[in-house]
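Work Package 4 report. The design task specified in the project plan requires that, given a folded chain encoded as structure tokens, an amino acid be chosen for each position. We show below one input record used in the internal validation round.
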């Protein structure tokens, strides 16, 4: 299907706006994703404040030009972008969906902290726990020594 020039420019402008307004962006190869799975993916991403957009690679490449440092990772297959204002939400949510739907999606790379990064690095970012999980781990770590000290003091008090 051929797009007229004005439509292409409008799509590029929309993509540029999405790129500019997001803290992180993930390139996703969705080749093999069933329509029902894509609907579920979009719903899950929306719940977490992540936007998802399918794009032609040529238009996406034009929209990405000069938007980050480094080289754009190779975009193979059918490409979509997932982006959000939360730095870790888009890679984490794509990764979580990828875990439950084996072979339906793959992370090709993305933009993180103003730099183009490859799929492997984006996977590392995707596995960083959420802020709430990290805070609960810190609370547990802080609670543990205090709890042991209280038990020790209690045992000393019992012996006297």
């Amino acid at each position: 299907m051929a797009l007229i020039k004005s439509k292409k420019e409008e799509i590029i402008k929309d993509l540029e706006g999405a790129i500019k307004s997001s803290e992180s962006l993930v390139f996703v190869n969705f080749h093999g994703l069933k329509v029902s799975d894509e609907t579920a993916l979009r719903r899950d991403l929306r719940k977490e404040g992540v936007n998802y957009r399918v794009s032609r690679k040529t238009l996406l490449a034009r929209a990405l030009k000069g938007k980050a440092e480094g080289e754009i990772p190779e975009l193979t297959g059918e490409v979509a972008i997932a982006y959000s204002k939360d730095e870790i939400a888009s890679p984490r949510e794509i990764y979580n969906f990828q875990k439950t739907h084996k072979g339906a999606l793959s992370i090709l790379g993305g933009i993180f902290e103003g730099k183009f990064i490859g799929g492997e690095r984006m996977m590392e970012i995707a596995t960083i726990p959420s802020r709430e999980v990290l805070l609960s781990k810190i609370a547990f770590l802080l609670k543990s020594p205090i709890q042991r000290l209280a038990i020790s003091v209690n045992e000393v008090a019992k012996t006297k």
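The domain at 5-128 is CATH 3.30.70.1730 (Alpha-Beta Plaits). Validation will be extended to a larger panel in the next phase.
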